[in-house]
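Translate structure to sequence.
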């Protein structure tokens, strides 16, 4: 079936248009059906190739689906949904766009046998959570390397030389007393940190209310 040059070929049907391919024994080896609701292809392997060079842009068989285009772009507002796992050596956001990894209802897990690296070469790295943030190393160490390390919003305990009157309630210095500018970082037995006014010796107290009521 052919038409003259620069003329379209039209196959029209009230139901559907079906193209069948058969082998020398008459067995059906491939079928393309254009219907009112869908276009269906039944074959061992389906391929879409580029007009120039014949590069495979899309292929599908029983084992896998391959997208050979340089870029796969999903324009839907909900993005791409994967029912199981995703394997990739690289995750990258578009230029001038932020990369966001989010699990709205469950947890987010990133695993690698040789380590997971998160790097912000020209900006800040921020981790925020609603409840607790755990940093855990089962066999190694947790190493913080920076010009400045700050621990904000730590409670301040008041030091008393008398063990019976020791307490950790925050108190503002009186106008006559010199302003306290140097503090000691104390660790409770349960691991909680708090600040204690620095003295000639250690002012940390295990009986501090900050440790007892934390």
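Result:
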């Amino acid at each position: 079936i052919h038409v003259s040059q620069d003329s379209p070929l039209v196959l029209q049907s009230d139901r559907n248009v079906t193209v069948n391919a058969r082998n020398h024994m008459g067995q059906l080896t491939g079928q393309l059906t254009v219907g009112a609701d869908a276009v269906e292809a039944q074959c061992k392997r389906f391929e879409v190739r580029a007009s120039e060079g014949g590069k495979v842009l899309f292929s599908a068989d029983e084992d896998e689906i391959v997208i050979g285009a340089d870029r796969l772009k999903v324009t839907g507002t909900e993005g791409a949904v994967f029912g199981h796992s995703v394997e990739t050596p690289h995750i990258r956001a578009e230029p001038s766009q932020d990369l966001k990894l989010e699990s709205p209802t469950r947890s987010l897990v990133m695993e690698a046998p040789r380590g997971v690296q998160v790097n912000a070469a020209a900006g800040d790295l921020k981790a925020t959570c609603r409840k607790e943030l755990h940093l855990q190393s089962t066999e190694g160490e947790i190493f913080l390397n920076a010009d400045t390390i700050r621990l904000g919003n730590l409670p301040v305990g008041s030091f008393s030389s008398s063990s019976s009157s020791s307490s950790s309630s925050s108190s503002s210095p009186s106008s006559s007393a010199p302003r306290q500018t140097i503090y000691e970082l104390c660790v409770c037995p349960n691991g909680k940190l708090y600040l204690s006014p620095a003295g000639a010796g250690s002012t940390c107290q295990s009986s501090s209310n900050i440790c007892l009521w934390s």
